[in-house]
Design goal:
The structure holds three protein chains of three kinds. By secondary structure, chain A is an alpha+beta fold. Chain A contains five helices and ten strands. In chain A, the strands form two sheets. Chain A has a five-stranded mixed sheet, with no helix packed on it. The chains are: A alpha+beta, B mainly alpha, C mainly beta. Chains in contact: A-B, A-C, B-C. Chains A and B meet through α1, α2, α3, β7 and β8 of A and α7, α13, α14, α15 and α16 of B.
C-alpha cells in the first residue's frame, strides 16, 4: 500500500477540495445537529418526569455528538458529487492517483469514534444509575401492576387492598411499579414519563419514576401480546396529593 | 467429489433405472410428492396419535397433526426433487459418474435445468434470484396491506387477528428474503467466478440449499389458512405457545430455512477457503468475497440456535413440554435469549454482504483503488465478532438481567467502531475519484444516507434510558427498516443492476433503473421518517389501530409506502423486460477488474477455459502522478 | 422509449390492482360484518342529566352451536362463544343497558379483580334480579370486559362478571332453561372504537389458557363501536 504523500507536498489544507469539504462539514454539522435534535425533541412532547427530561436531554446531546460524524460523511459525499460527474456507457479516465490508504485518517477516525462511543456509554450509565435511584430509596410508594390479555389492573398495596383499573399517581412522589403478567409477555410503558418494563408471566419486574407534572398521560402496552395488543392502553392520572387521597378513599382504600 | 474437466460432452447413456429417475425428477414431482406425503402424514397422525384428554389442555392435537403433516410435506418434496439421489448412490457404493454429474450440472438441458436439482452454481444463482424476487413480492404485498390499514386511525379495514398475522408473516418473509438477497443470487452465481473457480466446493449441497428454501415457502404461506401467527416475526413464547396452528407453519419455515442457511454457509466458506485461483492470496481476494464469507460464517453458529428455539416451541405446543412456561419450571426469557442470540448476528448477516457489494462497486465507479482494504476487512471482522456479544440489547426492558445492562450497552456501542470503518472505506473511495454516475454509484450515496440515519438511531436505542422510551415503539421499526432496507436492500438492488449483464447477458435498462431508484429512495425516506415521528410521539409497534394523535404521521408513511410500491414494480418490470430484450451486454461493460468480468456472456458451463492465475488484486485503478 | 414508459406504468397499475384485489379479498373474507345495533328504549335520568337509553341483548354459551357460527357450530363446534353476535354498535353520549344470559358452567376465576363489577353506572349489576357489586370468584363462567385505546377522545372501561351455572345444570345437548341473567348499564362518551373480551381464560394451548376461543375473534371477543347518532 502506497503512503499518502511525499514530504515536499504543500499542506493538505491548501487544496481546494479539502477546503470545500471543511466548509461543508461545518455547515452540514450545524444543519444536521439542529434539525435532528429539534425535530426529535419536539416530537417527544413535554416530559412528565425527571427521567423523561433526562432522556430527552440525552437524545439531544447524542444527536449533537453524532452530527460532526454525519456531517463529515455528508460533506465528503457532497464534495465528490460536486466534482465533474461522468455519465455514459464508457467509463471516465482513471483517477489521478493510486492512493490506497491513509494511516493518519484511519487512526484519527478510529480514535475519535472510540471516544464518542465511550462518551455515549458513560453518559448512558450515569443516567441509568440516577433513574434507578428511587428503587433503592425506601420512601417510594408501591403499586402492583398486572397485565392480562388485554387490560391492566393495579393494586395500591400501600393503601390497603384497593384494586382498580385506573392508575392515579400523586405528583412529586416516587413510585415503584411491580409488574407481572397473567399470561403472555406485555410491556408496561408510561409514555410521557419515559419508563418501561416488560410484564412477564411468572416473574415480577420493577421500574420506578417520580411524576413531576400534574396531568393525564398515556399507558400503552409495548410488546405484542396477541389479538387486542393495540387496545391495551389506559390513561394515567397524575394529581395532587390531596386529590389522590380523595380518589383512593373513593376506591375503598386508606389515604 | 465431482471432477469437472474440459471433456467434450457425451450423451448420457441409458442404463439402470436410477438414471431414468434423475431425468424424471423436477419441481413438479417435488410439489406432487410433497402434497401427497403431507396428506398421508395428516391422516396417519389423526389415526394413530392419542386423542386430547380433558386435562391436557396445554397441548393440542391439531398442532401435532399440522406439524407432522408439514414434516411429511418436507420429506416428500425433498425426495421428489431428487435431493436424496446423490447420498443414496454414494451409500450404495455406486457414486454418480462423470456423465451423470454433467447431467446434474445442467449440461445441454436448456431451460429445463432451472426446474431441477441442478448443481451448476450459475443455475442456482438464477434460481435464487427468481425466488428472492417472489419472496419480496409476497412480502411487499403484505406491507401494502399493513400500510393501507394504518392509513386511518381506527383501523378496522383488517381485523386485528388478520392484521397481526399479516404483520408477523411480512416480517419473517422479509427477513428471510433479505438474508438470501445477496448471498443467494450473487454469492452463488458471481462468487465462484470471482475467485477463479469452476464451481462451488459442494455443488449438490448448493442445489440442496436452494430447494430447501422452496420447500420452506408453502408452510409459511399455509399459516394464513390455519389461523395466522399472532406474534411478530420474533415469535415470542409464551404467546407463540398459545397461538393457532398457523404458528406451526412459521416453525417449519424456520427449521427448513435454518438447514438451508447452514448448508449454504458450509459450502460458501469451504469454497472461498479452498478453491481460490492460484495466486489469489488473501490480500488479493476481493472485498465482496470477505463480506459473503463473513455473512455466512455468522449464520453458521446463529441459525442452529434459531432452529433449536423453534423445536422447543413446537414441543411446548404439541407435546405439553414447558420449556418456555414458568408454570412448568420453564421461562419465557429462555426463548428471548435464544432468539436474540440468533437475531442480532442475523441482522449483520443481512447487512454485511450489501455493504461489501457496494465496496466492491465503489472502485469501479470512481476509477481509483478501494480506500484501505485492510480497514474494510477489520470492519467486517469487527462487526462479525462483536455481533455475537450484543444480543441482550434487545432485552433491556425485559427485566431479565438489569445488572447486564451496562456490559451490553458497552458491547453495542463498541460495534459502531467497526461499522464506522466501513463508512470511512466508502467515503475514502469516493474522495478524489473520477465519478462515473450509474445507478449503482447513486446507490452508494443512498446507502451512506440511509445507513447513517439507521446507525445513529441505533445508538439512541443502544442506551438503556433512551430505550426505556423507544423500545416497542414505531421508532424501532423505522430504525431497522433504515438499516435492513435502506442500507441492505439498496445494496441488493445495486448488485442486481451491476451484475445483471454477467448473469443474463443483457444490460439492465438504464432509465428504468434510475426511475426505480428515485421512487424507492424517496418513497422510503418519506415513509420511514414519518414512522420515526410517530414513534417519538408514543405509538407502539405492531398495532392494528392507534390514537388520533398519530394520524398525520401514519398518513405520511402510508403515502411513502405507495411510492415504494411504484418503484418496486418499475424495478420488477425493468428486470423482466431487460432480461427478455435488453441491450446485449459486452463481456465487461463496467471495465471492472474482478475475475467474473473476464469470462464471456453467456458464461460457459465450467466458467474458465483455463483456470486463471492471479498476480495482483482487483483494485489497480488510478494513474501514478506524473 | 414511449412504449417502455407505458409498459412500466402499466406494470405499476397492474401491480397496484393485484394488491388492491388481494387486500379487498382479505378484508372482506376475514371480517365478520355482522353487527348488532343497540335498540332504542326511550330516555333515562342519570347524574349527567337525561340521556337517551338503548339496550343490547347477548348470551354466553358452552359451545358454538349458537352464536354466529352456523347450525353445525362452524370450524370449532366445541368452543365456548358469545352470541348471537359479537360485534356491537351503540350511540355516543347515551345510557346502554346490556342483558347477558349466561348458559355455561365455570370455576375459579384466575384474577379476582374481574370477579367484581367495574365501570357501570352506579358500580353495580343485577344478577337474576338481585343487585350485586361482585360475585363469588369460585363460580365464574365468563366476564364481559369492555375497554379501548387510550385516545384523547374518550375512555370507557366496563367489566362485569357472569356467574357460572352448576355443572349439573348444563345439559349434554341444548342449553339450560334457567341461565344466569346479568343486567348492567353504563354511559358512553364520545364516539370511538372499543373492544370487548372475556377475562376468565378457559381456552387451550397454554397453562394460561388464553388460546383457542379466547384469542379468536367471534367467540370470546369482538368489536364495540360507539358511533355518533
Amino acid at each position: 500500500m502506497s503512503e499518502v504523500e511525499t514530504p515536499k507536498r504543500p499542506s493538505i489544507l491548501k487544496s481546494k477540495d479539502v477546503q470545500k469539504t471543511a466548509i461543508l462539514w461545518v455547515v452540514f454539522t450545524a444543519i444536521i445537529g439542529f434539525v435532528a435534535s429539534t425535530v426529535q425533541v419536539r416530537a417527544m412532547g413535554a416530559p412528565a418526569s425527571e427521567t423523561m427530561a433526562t432522556t430527552i436531554n440525552m437524545m439531544r446531546v447524542f444527536t449533537w455528538a453524532a452530527s460532526p460524524v454525519a456531517g463529515l460523511v455528508a460533506a465528503m459525499a457532497a464534495t465528490s458529487l460536486l466534482a465533474k460527474r461522468h455519465y455514459g456507457d464508457a467509463p471516465p479516465a482513471d483517477a489521478d492517483h493510486e492512493i490506497r490508504n491513509s494511516p493518519r485518517a484511519a487512526s484519527t477516525w478510529l480514535v475519535v469514534s472510540a471516544l464518542l462511543c465511550l462518551f455515549a456509554v458513560i453518559w448512558g450509565m450515569i443516567v441509568l444509575q440516577n433513574d434507578n435511584a428511587a428503587l433503592l430509596n425506601g420512601k417510594a410508594m408501591n403499586i402492583n401492576v398486572t397485565g392480562q390479555q388485554w387490560v391492566w389492573n393495579f393494586d395500591y398495596v400501600d393503601n390497603g387492598t384497593t384494586r382498580s383499573q385506573d392508575l392515579y399517581l400523586p405528583v412529586d412522589k416516587p413510585v415503584v411499579f411491580h409488574v407481572t403478567s397473567k399470561d403472555v409477555v406485555h410491556s408496561f410503558w408510561i409514555v410521557q414519563m419515559g419508563i418501561k418494563v416488560d410484564a412477564n408471566p411468572g416473574y415480577v419486574t420493577e421500574t420506578s419514576v417520580t411524576p413531576n407534572k400534574i396531568g393525564i398521560y398515556d399507558l400503552r402496552c409495548a410488546e405484542l401480546c396477541g389479538l387486542y395488543h393495540a387496545y391495551m392502553q389506559k390513561k394515567v392520572h397524575v394529581v395532587s396529593q390531596a386529590d389522590y387521597d380523595t380518589w383512593i378513599q373513593s376506591q375503598g382504600g386508606k389515604a | 467429489m465431482t471432477t469437472l474437466t474440459n471433456r467434450p460432452a457425451a450423451a448420457p447413456g441409458h442404463s439402470a433405472s436410477k438414471k431414468a429417475l434423475i431425468e424424471r425428477l423436477n419441481v413438479f414431482t417435488a410439489f406432487g410428492l410433497g402434497i401427497i406425503m403431507a396428506i398421508v402424514f395428516w391422516y396417519a397422525a389423526k389415526a394413530f396419535l392419542p386423542a386430547n384428554t380433558d386435562g391436557s389442555f396445554i397441548k393440542t392435537n391439531r398442532d401435532q397433526w399440522v406439524l407432522l403433516s408439514m414434516i411429511g410435506w418436507f420429506i416428500g418434496f425433498m425426495t421428489g426433487i431428487g435431493a436424496l439421489i446423490g447420498p443414496f448412490r454414494w451409500l450404495l457404493g455406486k457414486d454418480l459418474n462423470h456423465d451423470e454429474n454433467m447431467f446434474y450440472a445442467g449440461k445441454d438441458l436448456g431451460v429445463k435445468r432451472y426446474f431441477r436439482y441442478t448443481t451448476d452454481h450459475k443455475v442456482v444463482g438464477i434460481q435464487y434470484l427468481v425466488v428472492t424476487t417472489i419472496i419480496f413480492f409476497v412480502g411487499g404485498v403484505l406491507a401494502m396491506l399493513i400500510r393501507t390499514n394504518l392509513g386511518h386511525p381506527g383501523g378496522g379495514w383488517l381485523q386485528p387477528q388478520t392484521y397481526n398475522a399479516i404483520v408477523g408473516t411480512h416480517g419473517i418473509i422479509m427477513i428471510v428474503g433479505t438474508i438470501i438477497m445477496i448471498t443467494g443470487p450473487f454469492g452463488n452465481f458471481i462468487m465462484p467466478i470471482m475467485i477463479g473457480a469452476r464451481d462451488m466446493a459442494f455443488p449438490r449441497l448448493n442445489a440442496l440449499s436452494f430447494w430447501l428454501i422452496v420447500a420452506a415457502i408453502p408452510p409459511i404461506l399455509s399459516s394464513f389458512f390455519l389461523g395466522g401467527i399472532p406474534t411478530g416475526w420474533s415469535a415470542y413464547n409464551p404467546l407463540a405457545d398459545q397461538a393457532p396452528p398457523g404458528m406451526d407453519g412459521y416453525i417449519m419455515f424456520i427449521c427448513i430455512f435454518a438447514i438451508s442457511t447452514m448448508v449454504a454457509g458450509a459450502n460458501i466458506t469451504t469454497t472461498v477457503v479452498k478453491m481460490r485461483a492460484k495466486g489469489m492470496t488473501w490480500n488479493r481476494t476481493p472485498i465482496f468475497i470477505y463480506g459473503t464469507v463473513a455473512s455466512v460464517a455468522l449464520a453458521l453458529p446463529a441459525f442452529p440456535v434459531f432452529f433449536l428455539s423453534q423445536v422447543m416451541s413446537a414441543m411446548d405446543r404439541a407435546t405439553g413440554s414447558t420449556f418456555y412456561d414458568t408454570r412448568g419450571g420453564g421461562s419465557g426469557w429462555l426463548y428471548e435469549n435464544l432468539f436474540w442470540i440468533m437475531g442480532h448476528p442475523e441482522v449483520y448477516v443481512i447487512l454485511i454482504p450489501a455493504v461489501a457489494a457496494l465496496m466492491e462497486m465503489a472502485p469501479v465507479f470512481t476509477r481509483r483503488p478501494l480506500f484501505s482494504f485492510n480497514l474494510a476487512i477489520m470492519g467486517i471482522a469487527g462487526i462479525s465478532g462483536l455481533s455475537v456479544l450484543v444480543w441482550a440489547h434487545h432485552m433491556y426492558m425485559t427485566g431479565w438481567a438489569p445488572l447486564l445492562a451496562g456490559p451490553f450497552m458497552l458491547t453495542t456501542e463498541l460495534i459502531s467502531i467497526p461499522t464506522g470503518m466501513l463508512f470511512l472505506v466508502l467515503i475514502g473511495t469516493l474522495w478524489r475519484g473520477r465519478l462515473w454516475m450509474t445507478m449503482p454509484t447513486a446507490s452508494i450515496y443512498a446507502l451512506l444516507w440511509n445507513f447513517m440515519i439507521g446507525g445513529i438511531t441505533g445508538i439512541y436505542l443502544s442506551d438503556v434510558p433512551a430505550d426505556a422510551f423507544l423500545h416497542g415503539s414505531m421508532y424501532v421499526t423505522a430504525h431497522f427498516h433504515y438499516t435492513l432496507m435502506g442500507a441492505g436492500l439498496t445494496g441488493a438492488i445495486a448488485s442486481l443492476v451491476f451484475w445483471f449483464p454477467k448473469m443474463t447477458g443483457r444490460m439492465f435498462d438504464k432509465t428504468l433503473s434510475w426511475v426505480a431508484f428515485w421512487l424507492i429512495q424517496i418513497g422510503f425516506n418519506v415513509a420511514f421518517m414519518g414512522m420515526f415521528m410517530v414513534g417519538l410521539a408514543g405509538q407502539p409497534r405492531r398495532v392494528e389501530a392507534y390514537a388520533h394523535m398519530f394520524s398525520q404521521g401514519n398518513m405520511v408513511t402510508t403515502a411513502g409506502a405507495y411510492v415504494i410500491m411504484a418503484g418496486m414494480l418499475v424495478l420488477l418490470y425493468g428486470m423482466i423486460s431487460s432480461w427478455r430484450n435488453g441491450i446485449m451486454a459486452p463481456m465487461n461493460p463496467w471495465f471492472a477488474k474482478t475475475l467474473e468480468w473476464t469470462v464471456p456472456n453467456p458464461v460457459p458451463l465450467e466458467n474458465f477455459e483455463v483456470l486463471p492465475v492471479v498476480t495482483e488484486d482487483a483494485y489497480g485503478y488510478g494513474r501514478k502522478q506524473s | 422509449m414511449n412504449k417502455r414508459f407505458f409498459a412500466a406504468l402499466g406494470t405499476v397499475i397492474l401491480g397496484a390492482a393485484v394488491i388492491a384485489g388481494i387486500g379487498t379479498y382479505v378484508a372482506s373474507a376475514k371480517n365478520d360484518s355482522r353487527v348488532l345495533a343497540a335498540t332504542p328504549a326511550g330516555t333515562m335520568v342519570t347524574p349527567q342529566g337525561t340521556l337517551p337509553h338503548y339496550t343490547l341483548d347477548m348470551s354466553s354459551y358452552p359451545d358454538s352451536m349458537s352464536g354466529s357460527h352456523g347450525k353445525d357450530g362452524g370450524v370449532h363446534p366445541d368452543w365456548v362463544t358469545y352470541g348471537d353476535y359479537t360485534n356491537f354498535k351503540v350511540p355516543a353520549h347515551s345510557v346502554i343497558t346490556i342483558t347477558i344470559k349466561q348458559y355455561d358452567s365455570g370455576a375459579r376465576i384466575t384474577n379476582d379483580f374481574f370477579a367484581a363489577v367495574h365501570g357501570t353506572m352506579d358500580g353495580t349489576a343485577t344478577l337474576n334480579g338481585k343487585v350485586v357489586t361482585s360475585v363469588d370468584p369460585e363460580a365464574v363462567g365468563h366476564t364481559f370486559t369492555l375497554h379501548g385505546l387510550a385516545d384523547a377522545k374518550s375512555q370507557l372501561f366496563v367489566s362485569v362478571p357472569l356467574p357460572s351455572l352448576a355443572d349439573s345444570a348444563v345439559p349434554d345437548s341444548g342449553y339450560s332453561t334457567t341461565p344466569n341473567v346479568v343486567t348492567f348499564s353504563f354511559i358512553t362518551g364520545d364516539a370511538g372504537e372499543y373492544v370487548w373480551n372475556c377475562e376468565y381464560p378457559c381456552g387451550d394451548g397454554t397453562t394460561a389458557r388464553f388460546g383457542g376461543p379466547m384469542s379468536t375473534q367471534g367467540y370470546m371477543s369482538g368489536n364495540f363501536t360507539v358511533a355518533n347518532a
